[in-house]
């Protein structure tokens, strides 16, 4: 997928659209930079468009702090990613 960018006065977010073999579409948040309120406003707009377009899922790949922020918007932790630095 290609990362798409949205911005406003106080924030920038990046997201991509994932299409699964069975046809399900996922809105996948990749990053958010700037004021939290401005980030949330951008995400709300992108999510509303994805909902209107019939997407089945929205996922945000980020740090645990966003899980707390997004809980009131219906998001729950789904998977955990582990990482090892090489070199």
Outline the secondary-structure elements.
Blueprint: E1 4-7, E2 11-19, E3 25-34, H1 36-52, E4 57-60, H2 64-70
Parallel strand pairs: 3-4
Antiparallel strand pairs: 1-2, 2-3
Question: Would you summarize the structure shown here?
Answer:
The protein has about 90 residues and is of the alpha+beta class. The protein contains two helices and four strands; from the N terminus they run βββαβα.
Detailed description of the structure:
The protein has 87 residues and is α+β, with helices and mostly antiparallel strands. 28% of the residues lie in helices and 31% in strands. The chain contains 2 helices and 4 strands, in the order βββαβα. It has helices spanning 36-52, 64-70, and strands at 4-7, 11-19, 25-34, 57-60. A 4-stranded mixed sheet has the order 1-2-3-4, with helices on one face. α1 links the parallel β3 (25-34) and β4 (57-60). It starts with a strand and ends in a 17-residue tail after the last helix.
